[in-house]
Structures are given as C-alpha cells and as structure tokens.
Design goal:
The protein contains three helices and seven strands. It has 144 residues and is α+β, with helices and mostly antiparallel strands. Strands 1, 2, 3, 4, 5, 6 and 7 form a seven-stranded mixed beta sheet that branches.
Length: 144
C-alpha cells in the first residue's frame, strides 16, 4: 500500500525558494565532481514503513503553513552523522504543485495516507497565473 511523508520546509518562503535552494544543491554537487547529483534530506528517524513509502510515495512539503508541493521518493538510506544513525531521504528533483491546503506545524516528518494527500494541480483550476504569495493568502482565507 502506497504511503507518503509530509515535512515542514523550514527556511523557504515559497515553492520558488525551495526550487532555487534545491537546484543550488545540485549545482554544488556537480561542481564538487559528483557524477550523479541527488537531493537528500537527512533526518534522525528511519521510517518503519519504508516499503510502503517506496511503492510510489512522495515527500509533501509544507511551506508557510500550507501543503504546497510534492516530490517523488526514490530511496531511504542509512546515514551516520557524528556516530549517530540517521535516515537519508532521497527524492526526485521534479517539484509537483498540489492543491494547497492548510497544515499545522509539527516536528520531524509524518506519514501521510494517500486519501489524505492533496491532489496535484493540473491547470484549469482557480489561481493559475497568480503570484504564489497571493495564492497562499487566498488559500488561508478559504477562497481558493
């Protein structure tokens, strides 16, 4: 059964900020000579339901209190930092916008069931062409 992760995106004010930061990470890895650059988020806890997450799951990012975008999960790998085991969440570089929905703050990551995940935005929906800050405000007011 497919399962997703949801995580707060701390430090980014918009999807564009997140995209720029991630592309900067890819450029940095290329500059250092890494043959296959990848996006990896390191977190303390390894998910127990790894098989379900890697069966088509995504990492949903909460930006400024709203679920805004997702990225496909590719791999979960063990990482050791300062002698302490961690989890490296490897995900696809493609950002897929989703129908924005408010979400309260939380620590770490959480599982997100497919039925609770917002649908992808596929055009033709209200708000196309609006600046991201305006879309976020309209969602927070319940108008979009």
């Amino acid at each position: 059964m497919t399962l997703h992760l949801i995580k707060l995106c701390v430090g980014a004010d918009s999807v564009e900020d997140l995209a720029q930061w991630q592309m900067g990470r890819i450029r940095e890895q290329k500059k250092r000579g890494k043959k296959k650059p990848e996006l990896v988020h390191v977190t303390r806890m390894m998910p127990k339901r790894a098989d379900d997450l890697l069966d088509g799951g995504s990492l949903y990012w909460v930006i400024k209190g709203q679920i805004a975008v997702r990225q496909k999960l590719l791999e979960l790998r063990s990482v050791v930092r300062d002698g302490t085991p961690h989890c490296g969440i490897v995900y696809d570089a493609k950002l897929v916008p989703v129908a924005r929905r408010m979400h309260r703050p939380f620590q770490g990551w959480r599982y997100l069931k497919p039925e609770d995940a917002p649908p992808d935005v596929r055009g033709g929906k209200g708000g196309d062409g609006l600046p991201e800050a305006l879309k976020a405000e309209l969602v927070s007011l319940g108008l979009l």
